[in-house]
Amino acid sequence: MRLEVSPEATIRTMSNDHELVRERRRFIASRSLPLFSKNGFDRTSVRDISKACDMSVGAVYHYLGSKDDIGLLVAEQMRSEMLEFMGHAFDDPRPVESLRSIIAEWCRLCDRLQDNVLFLYQEPRNIGKPIQERIAEVELQCLAWFEEILCKGVDTGTFRPMDTRLFAFNIYICGNMWAFRRWYLGKLMTLDQYISAQTDALINSALPKS
Amino acid sequence: MRLEVSPEATIRTMSNDHELVRERRRFIASRSLPLFSKNGFDRTSVRDISKACDMSVGAVYHYLGSKDDIGLLVAEQMRSEMLEFMGHAFDDPRPVESLRSIIAEWCRLCDRLQDNVLFLYQEPRNIGKPIQERIAEVELQCLAWFEEILCKGVDTGTFRPMDTRLFAFNIYICGNMWAFRRWYLGKLMTLDQYISAQTDALINSALPKS
Amino acid sequence: MRLEVSPEATIRTMSNDHELVRERRRFIASRSLPLFSKNGFDRTSVRDISKACDMSVGAVYHYLGSKDDIGLLVAEQMRSEMLEFMGHAFDDPRPVESLRSIIAEWCRLCDRLQDNVLFLYQEPRNIGKPIQERIAEVELQCLAWFEEILCKGVDTGTFRPMDTRLFAFNIYICGNMWAFRRWYLGKLMTLDQYISAQTDALINSALPKS
Amino acid sequence: MRLEVSPEATIRTMSNDHELVRERRRFIASRSLPLFSKNGFDRTSVRDISKACDMSVGAVYHYLGSKDDIGLLVAEQMRSEMLEFMGHAFDDPRPVESLRSIIAEWCRLCDRLQDNVLFLYQEPRNIGKPIQERIAEVELQCLAWFEEILCKGVDTGTFRPMDTRLFAFNIYICGNMWAFRRWYLGKLMTLDQYISAQTDALINSALPKS
DNA sequence: CATGAATGAGGTTTCATTCAT
DNA sequence: TATGAATGAAACCTCATTCAT
């Protein structure tokens, strides 16, 4: 088992104040993300970023080694939020109830991290290969987690036999798409309505036919 | 009623040979698209494109007014294929059968135009507002078309009462995601298996509960 | 009454140090102008300019938004010098003496700003319409100023009746031509001799015939 | 005495039909000149020229060796017209009458060849050194010719003692400026009025004081 | 003769990154 | 620690010229 090193620790910095570095990076990422959403990563210059942060260009480079590192931070934030999300126990023994909670929470997470989700979809090339793999890893964990509940439901006969991996994938996408297409979906319904309708559809699809 | 002008006709060219222009543009777009998929639009230089086309940079600009125009061509190809797709009659009177056909064909289309789908997701900013709106228009048409069948099924009681717009959206996404996440899904199953499983899930979700 | 904004203030810059910007721009313009004189604006590349300034290309663009802006600076320098020139009081009540002073000073100004004069004659297209109009404005003011003295002289009978506007134009051209054709005139005479001879000719032409 | 070879004969051509070549070149020059006036030589592309000539780019290069050759043609036209102009005998024995005719004809020539005059002022660098010298040569001849009459007048006491070279220069410029600043002068007066007024001024300036 | 597609050098401009202050 | 001026590579695009047809 290899030693896990947070990628954030590998980002170069001029500062030794660990806490300050964390705080500044978080700040920079939070100010950058809307710019990336609006104009794309490549069309957002470091100068733009520094302006959005009310910092000098040099200051940005005090806390980061390169522009690409911001992409990394954005990805890491998504990753850590997903890990935290999976840390929650939705351990209702009833598969249907459990699924219901998870779908709802997953959609809410994607809603909250909308810009991060967008970034991961649109700028995969701007977060080096290793980070992409780290992200893929949690995605797989997430899918596995969804799958576990589904399997439990299938085993107990609550759900019909199905391709649980694909079903888990659909749940995953269900959350992502709320983030990705909120400009469209938001005109049709609220998040709660979305959650409710999609949960119904998913569960209906999981239940055995009459 | 405004006169429809193909955006391709608005792209500047040095040539008057309409047929040649069409052919060369198609060629350029087809060679560019894999580069965009691999490296992203902004990180693909016109020089890269010209090399991929075995042309000089000048030759590329003989048929195009700007690099952005290639994005437009890619979008237009998707658009015209979608229009053609909707032109087909899947007019089985039985909603279930009809839905089955459409989902299958839609997924096959997205599979065939995988790189175009990716491009539309990843590079929306590189195809100018007007073209984005043209694309959004056919997307809506497509959704409306899906919805129509669903409504028919709901009206006749074949399908359960549901938010047909959201359901149509899910079908749409179902195709897109095969294109977008083929690197993952392709390891789990073939396109036909994907179609079959997703169709089952969708139809199961649409049928009334026992 | 509209607020006058110096065109220099409209030129994009990356710096906020107003004084530095002014100084660097002046420097860049002063080094560029001889190149323009020698090779023409369009045949002087920004790389040539940056070399002449012992700067990198990027540094030039730190203080200017575009190459064309240098043309604007050159024009503005001429303009402001002309305004200053007109600010001087050559208020000798005797028209002849007054005319004499003005012609001399005008020729000296054109001599000093030789390259600017050349630039305005040769590169009118490289300084944008608005600036051309600003220049035309001061030219007209200058002509009006010359005319005023002529009119005074005509009114008092010192000068013969004449088309004062054309005469003013001739004075104006007299200065310009020393700048424009110094390569020729300079071989025949010194500036002082030119001034003296032209003043004689002009005044002789203005005086009533015997 | 070196053999004079018309520069036009040195321009490369693919054609052997001497007369056709002459005719086509004249045509090309006449269609190009307005473009040069409007946009400048460097900003007029060979494509623009070929379009203005209703020719293909290749056709232009059949009759010319390079774009610069057009500048040469424009200069040569001015030159040959000036030579023809000087060939006329304005051999009125009376200096005043002779001067009057010459000024008038010179201004009319400059009016007719306005665009050529402009070109020579604005694009000297686009007509290689040798041609510039050829032009300078006729200019000097022209000046000498003007001077001759002036000298005659001074010798006979009709004109006051003066710097005849400078006076000749002024006559020369007088014609050029009508061409160069017609956009301004044309608003004040007609060509005939200009000729009349300038002739009066020049002759008045040449006559002895009372 | 005529055409116009093709070439590729070179132009202007941008921007991630460094480093003297 | 913070600043922002400076660098220079590399991007997009143009255009004089050639040459196969």
Give the number of DSSP strands of chain A: 0
Distance between the termini of chain A: 48 Å
The SSE string of chain A, one letter per element, is HHHHHHHHHHH
**SS-based structural class of chain A?**
mainly alpha
- Which geometry of chain A do the CA atoms define? elongated
Radius of gyration of chain A: 19 Å
Tell me the quaternary state.
homotetramer
**Beta-strand content estimate of chain A:** under 5%
Describe the largest sheet of chain A: none
Number of helices of chain A: 11
> Biggest interface: chains and residue counts?
A-B, 37 and 38 residues
Q: What does this protein structure show overall?
A:
Four copies of one chain form a homotetramer. By secondary structure, chain A is mostly helical. In chain A, 73% of the residues lie in helices and 0% in strands. Chain A contains eleven helices and no strands. Chain A is elongated. At the A-B interface, helix 9, helix 10 and helix 11 of A face helix 9, helix 10 and helix 11 of B. Chain B binds a DNA duplex (21 and 21 nucleotides) through residues 14-17, 20, 45-47, 55-59, 61-62, 66-67.
